[in-house]
Design brief:
InterPro entries: PCD_sf, Pterin_deHydtase. This protein is α+β, with helices and mostly antiparallel strands. The protein has three helices and four strands; from the N terminus they run αββαββα. Bound molecules: the ligand C[C@H](O)[C@H](O)[C@H]1CNC2=NC(N)=NC(=O)C2=N1.
Length: 95
């Protein structure tokens, strides 16, 4: 099992707009797109990466907004997999 992230690992994610949950066990972010197709297209791309990583987001979509929470259930907290998926999500949202 991957080690838990330290505050030093989490700081750059917070700088990129991710919010640390009060219990420290998840990071959250709200992604806003131009329209539903952009939002759902992004979710589809992220889903392929999540499956490849075997690490899956908790998320919900309303029209052009996607609310995301990342945590590693197996570790009851944040691990490198969450950081990796968060970065991928940011990258795909920019492009
Ligand atoms: C059996 C399977 O490998 C595990 O359940 C994986 C699947 N996807 C997962 N996704 C997330 N976010 N956390 C996990 O602990 C996790 N575990």
């Amino acid at each position: 099992m991957t080690d838990k992230l330290t505050q030093d690992d989490i700081a750059p994610l917070q700088a990129a707009g991710w919010t640390l949950a009060d219990d420290g066990e998840a990071i959250t972010k709200t992604f806003e797109f131009k329209n539903f197709v952009q939002a759902f297209g992004w979710m589809t791309q992220v889903a392929m990466h999540a499956e490849k990583l075997n690490h899956h987001p908790e998320w919900s979509n309303v029209y052009k907004t996607v609310e995301v929470a990342l945590t590693t259930h197996d570790a009851d907290g944040l691990t490198a997999l969450d950081a990796k998926l968060a970065k991928k999500m940011d990258q795909l949202a920019e492009g």
